[in-house]
Design a protein that fits this description.
Blueprint (H helix, E strand, L loop, with lengths): L9 H7 L20 E5 L5 E5 L3 H9 L8 H23 L21 H17 L6 E9 L8 E8 L5 E5 L10 E4 H5 L8
Antiparallel strand pairs: 1-2, 3-4, 4-5, 5-6
């Protein structure tokens, strides 16, 4: 979830912007590719690292989607696996390998925490890289969405994809689980109602 310092104005900007990550920091690469992308952490993108993957690392991600996905549901399954694998690759590079789900902390300041702003920003980056490499055939990346606000509980933000054949929006939420675990992908309208994995 979003830290208290963001409630004043950033949340509104985040939701209304076509390039949502710009409102977190102008240091974040909004046209990411495997050889040049940003990852943020330490709660609400207080720390930003510019990273690159090796050819072998990215080919391992690409292989998950080849020769292609036959259905939207299959593609969402591949997206989950790809996001989890990218987190596993990037965790040791950024010190976020021990990040725990939700806002739970390990108690070790060296285990850089990630709140939902960090998670949704990073997941959106991963999704854009998949899209730009032509690996997504059934979905397109949308701007992150925030639910809650003060009337309905603390704000919480997620990455979003749109299913192209029916325009259904899906939340891709990696905040609920520890680093390297597959994100939850659920209909965005259901997510907006306060959905969490405990509802299953």
């Amino acid at each position: 979830m979003i830290s208290n310092r963001l409630i004043g104005g950033l949340v509104i900007s985040w939701c209304s912007s076509a390039q949502a990550v710009v409102f977190v920091s102008d240091e974040i690469n909004t046209t990411p590719r495997p050889s040049d992308f940003s990852i943020c952490f330490d709660n609400s993108c207080q720390t930003i690292r510019q990273l690159s993957l090796t050819d072998d690392q990215w080919q391992g991600i690409r292989a998950m989607f080849l020769p292609g996905t036959r259905t939207p549901d299959m593609e969402r399954t591949m997206i989950k696996r790809a996001v989890a694998q990218l987190e596993q690759i990037i965790g040791p590079l950024t010190g976020t390998a021990h990040d725990r789900g939700t806002n739970e902390t390990t108690g070790n300041p060296l285990d850089h925490r990630m709140d939902c702003i960090d998670e949704s920003t990073n997941t959106t980056t991963y999704l854009y890289m998949l899209q730009q490499d032509g690996l997504l055939h059934w979905h397109r990346v949308k701007e992150p969405v925030t639910r809650g606000f003060l009337l309905f509980g603390w704000p919480h933000t997620t990455a979003v994809i749109e299913q192209e054949n029916n325009r259904q929006l899906w939340a891709v939420d990696s905040w609920f689980h520890d680093n390297g675990t597959a994100p939850e992908i659920v209909p965005l309208e259901q997510w907006k109602q306060g959905w969490s994995p405990t509802d299953r």
